[in-house]
Amino acid sequence: MKLTLRVWRQQNAEAPGAMATYEVDGISQDMSFLEMLDTLNEELILSGDEPVAFDHDCREGICGACSLVINGDAHGPERTTTCQLHMRSFEDGDTIDVEPWRASAFPVVKDLVVDRSSFDRIIQAGGYISAPTGTAPDAHATPVPKPDADSAFEHAECIGCGACVAACPNGSAMLFTSAKVNHLNVLPQGAPERETRVLDMVATMDDEGFGGCTLTGECATACPKGIPLPSITAMNKEWLRANRKVRR
Amino acid sequence: MPLASSVVSMALATRADRRPSMTRTLWDSSVGKKTIMAVSGLIMLGYLAVHMLGNLKIFFGSDEFNHYAHWLRTLGEPFLHYEWALWIVRVVLVAAVVLHAVSAYQLSRRDLRARPTAYVHKKARSSYATRTMRYGGIILALFIVWHILDLTTGTVHTGGFQSGHPYQNVLDTFSTWYGNVIYIVAVLALGLHVQHGFWSAAQTLGVGSATRDRVLKTLANVLAVVLTAGFVSVPVAVMTGVVS
């Protein structure tokens, strides 16, 4: 495959960026999108140019490090992570636009790399449980109803990649925060901080400069792990409940 | 519960020790402000349903329509003084409009700040109704001002405003081309606004769920279509001479 890439290049956080055009040849349909970028970078290095900086780690769709907006879609045309996107999703001769996540809470560090530590601070605000130390309790010591366990698992699938924020026209982190809140709030282990968790995580989300939710549904469409839009509804319900309960 | 939360606040210093009041939290949070928008929006929606049904009385002649308008002023008597019920409704509606608009403005500012750089590769995203919520809201706010100046105070009314004769006043307004255009454009904007707004309000108030989604979306569509059709029927009837 021969492709034309238009890639966002930005020297550092302060420098202005622009799209740069590159031609790549000899791309196999079996390559992942990141391997295709590796090929581009090898050529850039050989010709003495600076390689394109992009985030990646596990390359098997579970770590949430890769973060590219491809042709206007977070993680590209398939519902998966960028590392699990393969070049067979594109046609020979295509022009592909590659941009970083765009949100003021995710400032660009360099090229396609953004700083997602705002997500870490949302987690620090309440994405934990209070567990007794000592030997691990028996797995069946605390009964969890099957529907609750399923719901917790569904939300626990969130890998915190930030595609929801990138896809949202308001740069909102509601889907991410709702996945984390619902994951723990539905379980008995999360019950002691049920109210403070949702209030503090939503407050931190606001403080970090994420936008509000206008329910466009873009986040749930982009999510590689299929966190559903009603998760936001469930978090709104938890938030309203907590705001009533926390001062009693 | 109290023991657990005190242990947590000792160990991790959560925000629990300096938690602001419920109202403060509601106003400061993006989720809280959406709640205010949802509740004020539903109040306005309830009013609009009643307003639309009242408008339909124009199809039964000037006597019935004018009598209905007069009855609105005597509503609640003798418990309430003349026009008091109307004024209570007006105060509630003004409060709802102001809270809705101020929240929308502040949330929009936050949203625009949160996404300062647009993508180079643009995509047509989300439904038309969703994308036009802000513009639609502005159109509706301007329309409300014109509508009140036209048919309540008569300030910008064409054809000689007659207090106590709403039937004739409505005919005057819909006898002008611009009266019809302004009204119909606003009502179409209202339909779109309600279609996304009603469903959104349900999500914000936490009553939506995967199983209820179809019901809520259908209800939003039905409300939007019925309100639009009901309101538009009046200028159409005047234009076609059904009401004269």
- What is the terminal-to-terminal distance of chain A? 64 Å
Radius of gyration of chain B: 22 Å
Strand residue percentage of chain A = 5-15%
**Uncertain parts of chain B:** 1-11
Just give the CATH class of chain B.
Mainly Alpha
Oligomer: heterodimer
Structural class of chain B: mainly alpha
Organism (chain A): Streptomyces atroolivaceus
Domain 4Fe-4S ferredoxin-type (chain A): 149-179
Protein name (chain A): Succinate dehydrogenase/fumarate reductase iron-sulfur subunit
Family (chain A): Belongs to the succinate dehydrogenase/fumarate reductase iron-sulfur protein family.
Protein traits:
heterodimer; A: 248 residues; alpha+beta; Fumarate Reductase Iron-sulfur Protein, Chain B, domain 2; 8 helices; B: 244 residues; mainly alpha; 3 helical TM bundles of succinate and fumarate reductases; 10 helices; disordered N terminus; iron-sulfur (chain A); Succ_DH/fum_Rdtase_N (chain A); 2Fe-2S_ferredoxin-like_sf (chain A)
Question: Can you describe this structure?
Answer:
The complex is a heterodimer of chains A (about 250) and B (about 240). Chain A has about 250 residues and is an alpha+beta fold. Chain A folds into two domains: about 5-110, Beta-grasp domain (Ubiquitin-like (UB roll), Roll); about 115-130 and about 140-245, Orthogonal Bundle (Fumarate Reductase Iron-sulfur Protein, Chain B, domain 2), CATH 1.10.1060.10. Chain A is about 35% helix and about 10% strand. Chain A has helices at about 35-45, 115-125, 145-155, 165, 175-185, 195-205, 220, 230-245, and strands at about 5-10, 20-25, 70, 75, 95-100, 110, 115. In chain A, the strands form two sheets. In chain A, strands 2-1-5-3-4 form a five-stranded mixed beta sheet. A two-stranded antiparallel ribbon of chain A has the order 6-7. In chain A, strand 3 (about 70) and strand 4 form a beta hairpin. In chain A, helix 2 (about 115-125) packs antiparallel against helix 6 and helix 5 packs antiparallel against helix 6 (about 195-205). The mean pLDDT of chain A is about 95. Chain B has about 240 residues and is mainly α. Chain B is about 70% helix and about 0% strand. Chain B starts with a helix and ends with a helix. At the A-B interface, helix 6 and helix 8 of A face helix 1, helix 2, helix 3, helix 5 and helix 9 of B. Chain A: This is Succinate dehydrogenase/fumarate reductase iron-sulfur subunit. Chain A: Belongs to the succinate dehydrogenase/fumarate reductase iron-sulfur protein family. Chain A: Keywords: Iron, Iron-sulfur, Metal-binding. Chain A: InterPro entries: 2Fe-2S_ferredoxin-like_sf (IPR036010), 2Fe-2S_ferredoxin-type (IPR001041), 2Fe2S_fd_BS (IPR006058), 4Fe4S_Fe-S-bd (IPR017896), 4Fe4S_Fe_S_CS (IPR017900), Beta-grasp_dom_sf (IPR012675), Helical_ferredxn (IPR009051), SDH/FRD_Iron-Sulfur (IPR050573). Chain A: Its cofactor is [3Fe-4S] cluster; [2Fe-2S] cluster.
